Amino acid sequence: MSLKIPLDNELQVQFVAAVVLVKGIPFYGFHAQYKYFLKVYLVDPGLLNRVVELLSKGVVMGQKFDTFESHIPYLPQFFIDHNLLGMDFMDLAHVYPRRTRGLDSVGMHQGKTHERPFELDRESYCELEFDVVAGDIMNRTRISERPRKPLIDLAASQEICDTKLVPSLRSLWEV
């Protein structure tokens, strides 16, 4: 199995959008230290299963690679990568407002809006409707490194209560 698709000789197709070096603590087994991983972003998420198969069979660079988080569908993985949580706010660097149907664009008084070379009509009847580029989602900057201390001090047999393990509930804790 390969990613080769019959194309004209003049066309070149790119399957990998980016490869990023990331660090984390593996969650399979016991690991006390960080490990480095390569995070591969694909142009077409529909090719994920084919790419995983190529990596696990050793087709790439003649070496077999273990894949992590490849079982997670694209949309939930996008939410995880950008720290988007249900019923939480989205911090955005730039937005592109859509115009109302048959009317001029709604003027924004707060935040940064940018003009686009083309106008798009709204898809809903909401008062405000925007388009956003994924790189402008700033929720990722709110993530802080969690301390690697044990959650339960076995010698004192008491729990450490200041560590919040469910970040999606952070807005409830801050009230």
Q: Give the helix tally.
A: 3
Radius of gyration: 22 Å
Strand proportion: 5-15%
Quote the distance from N terminus to C terminus: 53 Å
Enumerate the spans where pLDDT stays under 50 for 5 or more consecutive residues.
103-109
Shape: flat
The strand count comes to: 6
SSE sequence, one letter per element:
EEHHEEEEH
What does it look like?
The protein is α+β, with helices and mostly antiparallel strands. 13% of the residues lie in helices and 14% in strands. The strands form three sheets. Strands 1-2 form a two-stranded antiparallel ribbon. A two-stranded antiparallel sheet has the order 3-4. A hairpin with a 4-residue loop joins strand 5 (152-153) and strand 6 (158-159). It is flat.
Q: Which descriptors apply to this entry?
A:
flat, 3 helices, two-stranded antiparallel ribbon, 14% strand, alpha+beta, 175 residues
In short:
With 175 residues, the chain is of the alpha+beta class. The chain has helices at residues 48-57, 74-81, 170-173; strands spanning 16-24, 35-42, 96-97, 130-131, 152-153, 158-159.
Topology, please?
Elements: E1 16-24, E2 35-42, H1 48-57, H2 74-81, E3 96-97, E4 130-131, E5 152-153, E6 158-159, H3 170-173
Antiparallel strand pairs: 1-2, 3-4, 5-6
